[in-house]
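Quick start: what a row looks like.
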Amino acid sequence: MVSPVKSRRQRRLPAAPVVPKTAVPSLLVLANFFPESRRALHFAAELADHLAAPLVLLHIDELAAQYPEIPLRHTAAEARELRQDLRQLAEELHRPATVELGTGLLKHILTEAARRHAPALFVLGRPADEEADVELSKAVVDELRAAHLPLLLVPEVYAGPDLPQHLAVATDDEPFALHAGARAAQLLLRRLLPTQVTVVTASPLQDDAVCTAALHHVRTSGLLPESVPTPTVEGFYATQTEQGLLHAIATTQADWLVLLARPRRFLDQLLHRSVTKRMLHWSPVPVLVVPSRQARSRAPKRPAKLNMPRLEDEFLI
């Protein structure tokens, strides 16, 4: 059981969590019997094989999205049958995996699973059918954001490499620090060792100050290990951030997109603005969502005379 002292320390939110070189993240796949989940499961199995990481099939009943405040329970017979069916699903993989059935409140299912398998990275599939019912997925994304837990979303139609060679890191000129919950994502990036990293920004006008600040913040945040090549930066014109990021993915031919999830401001919450959520819906490549927070920076400040127009949205989950 986690002691109160340790919990208080975690809430201090260190700027760059210490990452042991030998540690690996546990991959927790939100498992069901539909195509997007199978795609995510096989994707995660390839990652787990490369990382020598534990692989967990976590099943959550779809009713958890409709009734998030009502604890979910299975009868003994239901649990036995469901566990057996999930084990058959796990046997399709070339790597051993454990099966867990989520019971109780949705937020408790996720946070307890993360605690048991820490450091935990959740893996979620996105269906190709835009008409598919994804209420559970939306609810899971919201709970992971609230708990500052990392997420790797895999589109069902993604046909690229499981191990990315080119990462695109999307951010802006706002300084950030990694949340303590970002540790699993750091461990993943440490082991993947991509051959190219591009920091991408979106702006309605040419604004080199945004590009240089974004690159500075990524380099000094501790997000990327020292072993990866020095990241470069590319700016893209856009009045809507997600359109700029989609253009960036297509132009750079990045295999994965990395998004920094920061706490939303009050106005963004009222207007339901979330670039990260829209990218989770539209991105053609896997998206790694890394919990982060606003931070102070010693980067050179933008000259006041520029006063460039801002995008409608920020890179916020």
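That is the whole record. Confidence is low (pLDDT under 50) at residues 1-16, 266-272, 304-317. The two ends are 30 Å apart (CA to CA).
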